[in-house]
């Protein structure tokens, strides 16, 4: 017999199902993600800290889990909700089933509920705080009270919580063309990457551009980074409210003043906006998926992108020296901008994909080009 589990939402909704991960309880903001694949990358994306992810694709776990698809050193999502987990995982790379993996990481997960109904609630009301409880004895009222007691992500600074404790250099090689071996690429640029919750594939794509990467903790002062004389600084993705990361905003102001090549992704994009004096706002239910159309305003192309954010930069608050480069074709929200008087640009979605399409990867070429240009003319 499966172990009972339920989801209680702050609006009073209760969904009864069964446990497919650890027993116990977890609280967080409940969001939905529409990606059809990539559950392991989603679970290990540090940007999901304090969020319970429900996947709208109904069969999750079909291909098991493997060591290559980890996007960080641990699972960061606060919990997982799915419609159904297959009884058996099948894939040549699979080393473990999803339920075993969730149990091993202590992640509470719920299956067997109507995820379509849950998603409609989240779309109508916006992301809601929730509590999953998994175990033989469940007190529904206590679960509802825990959902309501969760303070929500507004004002929550989580980047420094998930960041690395000490600096390190990213030494993983780069796949050769037939993807059979890792080679050490020629290092053309020295890049310092701020870890606000960085995903491995960002570091891999930077390495592919020939970057010699030093990853630094979220609260590293800008002066320490500038003393390393990097060719460029990268601001990573990460969880929580960007407006709460005052240390990151302060450091970014100094990088902008120093006119150092700067590239930000997701939380990094929001931090760059804040450093320029713009405002961020909480979206209704955010963007979480792997098929979000985004328009590149420079050439009119539409790119299918990977997305995961619940906050956004308000474009009306951007200063005059900013050029909007990308907008969402789902809701018109700001997706990317570049400075007109500095070698700095950023993107709200996930050009590194993992999971998702690779259509935005040209932004990594753009960062390399900016660093090359700055070296020639700087
Ligand atoms: N993926 C991210 O970097 C997310 C940024 C931020 N935590 C948000 O929810 O908008």
From TrEMBL:
Which ranges form a coiled coil? none
Gene Ontology MF annotations: carbamoyl-phosphate synthase (glutamine-hydrolyzing) activity
Under Enzyme Commission nomenclature, its number is 6.3.5.5
Alphabetically list the UniProt keywords: Amino-acid biosynthesis, Arginine biosynthesis, ATP-binding, Glutamine amidotransferase, Ligase, Nucleotide-binding, Pyrimidine biosynthesis
Organism domain of life = Bacteria
Active site per database record: 266 (nucleophile), 350, 352
Please name one Pfam family that this protein belongs to.
CPSase_sm_chain
What pathway does the UniProt record associate with this protein? Answer: Pyrimidine metabolism; UMP biosynthesis via de novo pathway; (S)-dihydroorotate from bicarbonate: step 1/3; Amino-acid biosynthesis; L-arginine biosynthesis; carbamoyl phosphate from bicarbonate: step 1/1
> In which residues is L-glutamine bound?
47, 238, 240, 267, 270, 308, 310-311
**Residue ranges, annotated region (CPSase):** 1-189
Keyword flag ATP-binding: yes
Identify the Gene3D superfamilies for this entry: 3.40.50.880, Carbamoyl-phosphate synthase small subunit, N-terminal domain
Q: Which reaction does it catalyse?
A: hydrogencarbonate + L-glutamine + 2 ATP + H2O = carbamoyl phosphate + L-glutamate + 2 ADP + phosphate + 2 H(+); L-glutamine + H2O = L-glutamate + NH4(+)
- What does the UniProt function comment say about this protein? Small subunit of the glutamine-dependent carbamoyl phosphate synthetase (CPSase). CPSase catalyzes the formation of carbamoyl phosphate from the ammonia moiety of glutamine, carbonate, and phosphate donated by ATP, constituting the first step of 2 biosynthetic pathways, one leading to arginine and/or urea and the other to pyrimidine nucleotides. The small subunit (glutamine amidotransferase) binds and cleaves glutamine to supply the large subunit with the substrate ammonia.
**What do we know about how this protein assembles, alone or with others?**
Composed of two chains; the small (or glutamine) chain promotes the hydrolysis of glutamine to ammonia, which is used by the large (or ammonia) chain to synthesize carbamoyl phosphate. Tetramer of heterodimers (alpha,beta)4.
Family designation: Belongs to the CarA family.
PANTHER family in the cross-refs: CARBAMOYL-PHOSPHATE SYNTHASE SMALL CHAIN, MULTIFUNCTIONAL TRYPTOPHAN BIOSYNTHESIS PROTEIN-RELATED
Protein name as annotated: Carbamoyl phosphate synthase small chain
Q: Which organism is it from?
A: Dyella japonica
Lineage here is: Bacteria, Pseudomonadati, Pseudomonadota, Gammaproteobacteria, Lysobacterales
């Amino acid at each position: 017999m499966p172990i009972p589990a339920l989801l209680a939402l702050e609006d009073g909704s209760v969904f009864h199902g069964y446990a497919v991960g650890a027993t116990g309880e977890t609280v967080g903001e409940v969001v939905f993600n529409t990606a059809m694949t990539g559950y392991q990358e989603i679970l290990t994306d540090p940007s999901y800290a304090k969020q319970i992810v429900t996947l709208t694709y109904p069969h999750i776990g079909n291909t098991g889990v493997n060591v290559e698809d980890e996007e960080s050193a641990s699972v960061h999502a606060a919990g997982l909700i799915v419609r159904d987990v297959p009884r058996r995982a099948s894939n040549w790379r699979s080393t473990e089933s999803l339920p075993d993996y969730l149990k091993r990481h202590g992640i509470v997960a719920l299956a067997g509920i109507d995820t379509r109904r849950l998603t409609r609630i989240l779309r109508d009301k916006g992301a809601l705080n929730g509590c999953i409880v998994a175990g033989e004895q469940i007190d529904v009222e206590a679960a509802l009270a825990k959902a309501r007691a969760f303070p929500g992500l507004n004002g929550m600074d989580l980047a420094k919580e998930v960041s690395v404790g000490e600096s390190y250099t990213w030494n993983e090689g780069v796949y050769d063309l037939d993807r059979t071996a890792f080679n050490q690429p020629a290092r053309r640029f020295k890049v310092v990457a701020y870890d606000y919750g960085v995903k491995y594939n960002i570091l891999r794509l930077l390495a592919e551009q020939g970057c010699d990467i030093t990853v630094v903790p979220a609260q590293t002062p800008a002066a320490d980074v500038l003393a390393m004389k990097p060719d460029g600084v990268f601001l990573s993705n990460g969880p929580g409210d960007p407006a709460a990361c005052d240390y990151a905003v302060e450091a970014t102001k100094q990088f902008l003043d120093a006119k150092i090549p700067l590239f930000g992704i997701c939380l990094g994009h929001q931090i760059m906006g804040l450093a320029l004096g713009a405002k961020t706002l909480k979206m209704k239910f955010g963007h979480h998926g792997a098929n979000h159309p985004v328009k590149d305003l420079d050439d009119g192309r539409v790119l299918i992108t990977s997305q995961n954010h619940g906050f956004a930069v308000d474009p009306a608050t951007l200063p005059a020296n900013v050029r909007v480069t990308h907008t969402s074709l789902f809701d018109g929200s700001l997706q990317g901008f570049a400075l007109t008087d500095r070698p700095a640009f950023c993107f709200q979605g996930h050009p590194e994909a993992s999971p998702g399409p690779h259509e935005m990867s040209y932004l990594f070429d753009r960062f390399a080009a900016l660093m090359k240009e700055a070296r020639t003319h700087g």
